[in-house]
Amino acid sequence: MISYEEALDIISKHPFSPNTEKRALSDASSYILNESLYADRDFPPFDRVTMDGISINYESYQNGQRQFEIEKTIGAGMPQASLEDNSKCVQIMTGAMLPLNADTVIRYEDITIEEDLATVNIDTIKFKQNVHFKGEDKKQGELVLSKGTVLGAPEMIIAASIGKPTLEVLLPPKAAIITTGDELVGIDETPLDHQIRRSSNYGVHDLLKTWNINAKQHHLKDDKKLMKSELSSIIETVDLLVLTGGVSRGKFDFLPEVLEELGVVKLFHKVKQRPGKPFWFGTTPNGTTVFALPGNPVSTFACANIYIRHWLELSLGIRRKPIYVKLNQVIDFPPPLTYFLECSVQSNELGELEATPIRGHGSGDFANMSQANGFVILPSDKNSFKKGEVYPYVQYRKTI
Asked: Is the pLDDT of residue 400 over 60?
């Protein structure tokens, strides 16, 4: 067996090469931007008023003037006007262009207007207040979004503001998920006493969907000849193949042997970890990456979250800072294995992320996963973990 760290290192050396595609802005969220975007003009493009009120020439106020006759009224979307008389003011709305000769805006809350005469009711006015000046955010030609950015709502706003109806993005891998085992039946079937419904694959499928991967699902019986035939055709059509079950040492666990016969190069089999020790990883000469995960639901889900996520983010150039959480109780784990501990993580009153372990009855106890929202990764070189100690955390459910 190899260590958790060795497994990550080997996987890191076998990324896939993503294709690119132009996608409409409305359909690009959560993809990876494959171009750098630049401001097509200054932002803001003019001296923009940020409060409803009056615009004045500050020198008049500085000279003691507190009442200003309203010269005109300007709204957002109207061409730039001028303050013709510096002793007067322009009534102005949020988003409008600051008039020429005016440099300061006083909000309605700080003035009284009677018969087109505005009276300032406060003692302190700052020069150039309540104005968002041209180019203050970005200058024309300046970088606004870097290549490699994960696109989300803020990026949609930025792209739209510079007139980008389409964006070039990296495409996720084409994928298939395969379950194996005669003990598994479909979710719409009534299992016999010796059978269970397929479930691990649905967790992996949903997880892949969050990464924009729409995987096709297949099921293979424990028949080596049939398994080899069907796998042979599937493996040629995908970049990512995820298999669940059939990778242990049971008499009917044919997968490792079948994969080898199909030319898949085994890069490792078995990792010093719990859950998910029988985890198998390999690649084909044509570039398909194969993750053969243990069949127990918690093992499958842990390996997918930790290893497939790592492989995908590395391939797409996503660089996320690791998340760390603090244990809120003592954990004893004697085996010399990396421990992926299910936990519920919440922020405490100090703003720290605290992990409450959710300890079930082994890798087949999938019911506990609904109570947790991630895995704390406890290292193999310790067997006792104290309350208050901090460890890496992989989140699989948003907590807020």
From this structure: no
